[in-house]
Amino acid sequence: MVSIHTNSDTPVRDFRTSDSSAQTKTKKCGFRIHRVTNTSTPHFCIFSSSNTTPTSNTIMFELEISPFHLLSAFVAVGITSFLWKLITVRRFYKDLPKPPHSLFFGHLKLYAEIVSQFPPQTYFDAFYNEISKRYNLPEVWYLDLWPLGPSFMLLSTPEAVKHITIVQPYLAHEWTDYYLSVFFGPGGISGLNGDAWRRVHHMLAPSFSPKAVKGQVASITDHIDFFHSKLEHLAKSGKEFRMNDLVSAAMFDVVSSTLFGFSLYAQQNGSQFLDDFKIIFSLGPLYAQSINPLRKAVWWWKMRDARKRTDRVIDDKIKERHGALFGEEKYLLEEKRNKLSVLDRMIVQRIAEMGQKVEKGLDEEFLRIITPNLKTVLAGGQGTTADTLSYVFLLLSIHPPVLSRLREEHDTIFSPSYSKTISILKTIPTLTNQLSYTDAVIKETLRLFPIGFSSRQAPKGVTHLTLSSGKSYPVKNQTISPSMQLSHFDPNNFPEPTKFDPERFLGEAEQTFDRYAYRPFERGPRSCLGRELAMDEMRIALLLTARWFDFTLVMDKKSLPKKPKLLHTDWDTKIGDLAFQFAGMSAGPRDGMPMKVSFSTERERK
Ligand code: HEM
């Protein structure tokens, strides 16, 4: 019931008898709303005066509303605005390229149906690849996951990708910073933009130049030598092992040495730090993608201790290195530039900039910047190479001619002797650049099993992406993904795309496809900073193992499907669910990739 009162509490006008003069009068005034508590039915008064205390001249609107009516009103408003939003959102896609779209579900139902055909926690790039193959989608298409997910804009052609990575570089999507902050805290380089990104990039980049990376070859070699000895033990015992765990520990030692100047020795002693990283990476994606606050809280709690411990290790390392380096900065910057670890280089640079001000310790601002970035690089540098190498070993194990040719190259460019190979590596580190067939094997593995993913958003003021065909695509509020799998599995770029064929990356063959069609490290200013380091780690890992060991994947061959389950790949008929990469921090093999190793019959260790 709605009525108009004066302050005398006598209703002066029943609202249902629409008196235009009363309405006109009140429209001129500002209103205040008060809940009246001294009546049996809760109701609300709207005063036409801005004064809190009603006077004799105050006109009141009194609304007597029962809780039921109030609730119904809220529900009605909620449903109306939901439907309004639903129609507005769905209409946006009306004339855009997309898979079949429903007015009510958008692409949610279709997406759920696609996801259900994959094993749990599959790396999402495979979903886009499958959708694209199923509906033969063009160079740019959209995926509408409202209200449960973002609006995705998928790019597949070299021209579209080049546009947003080079011609007019788009920004790292704001979601990236949120996602990575779950793992490392806010401020990791991959989620930053503008000046904040330039600053961190400037701090890190010198440590990853080709020259600086060659300064790390001796240390990489020592860690891989230890990896080799672990394989020897396993070959003697004949025991099954998880290849991904073994390679992860080796890559962790390599990257921690590059970062801190000394290893965390995960291979020798096991590492609490690496175990903590594993906890964070297994729970982080679940936390970031869940919309259930209760589950989120539980996952956060479980990650809490691991995060605290990793933070403490990093803080201690920073303090320790600062203490050791203070006063030496000029000499170190001039004389030992290419031998410095990433952390040392950043610290001496900061001491040089700030002078005596940092005698007692490094400033808060600097620590806030480097802590999440050391963790980002440690994680980014370890998981990515470990996942890729695991797949390289797997592919070599089922392609003997490729393995033979790789071995030949290693004998020719280095030496058939293990100990001589080690000493050449340490004396002529640049020789790894000549391993062109090894590079081709790694590149082809990264084409079939790419582990990186970019999420971009349009810079301010940019509303459309216009391509040379004249077609123009809206970019506002889109999560823009230059999907690697879409490019890598496109037969226009790579004929017979699911075939493992390293020849594609040799000599002139490499000129037959557009370089923007192949982007495992992405392209442009935001491409991978650690590319050179990653390539050298993987080359050396192969150089010191491939000739001495044969690997076998442990799996039940009878369980392999006779026909491919999906359209975009037939790898499940050869390697089962390992065909579908597992979504962790990067895209790795499932169940650690169980393998057995034996000594190669072709040669003995000399
Ligand atoms: C097989 C190995 C690797 C692959 C495939 C790979 C792939 C990528 C990709 C695709 C990006 C761009 C992500 C984006 O566009 O948002 C990236 C960025 C980055 N990577 Fe790697 N990466 C690898 C190894 C490494 C290593 C060993 C390091 C360092 C130790 C490293 C450090 C970085 C950093 C710092 C960035 C951020 C660059 C920026 O935002 O400016 N990566 N990586």
Automatic annotation (TrEMBL):
SUPFAM superfamilies: Cytochrome P450. Its cofactor is heme. Gene3D superfamilies: Cytochrome P450. The chain crosses the membrane at residues 68-87. It comes from the Eukaryota. Keywords: Heme, Iron, Membrane, Metal-binding, Monooxygenase, Oxidoreductase, Transmembrane, Transmembrane helix. GO terms for molecular function: heme binding; iron ion binding; monooxygenase activity; oxidoreductase activity, acting on paired donors, with incorporation or reduction of molecular oxygen. Belongs to the cytochrome P450 family. This is Cytochrome P450. The lineage of its organism: Eukaryota, Fungi, Dikarya, Ascomycota, Pezizomycotina.
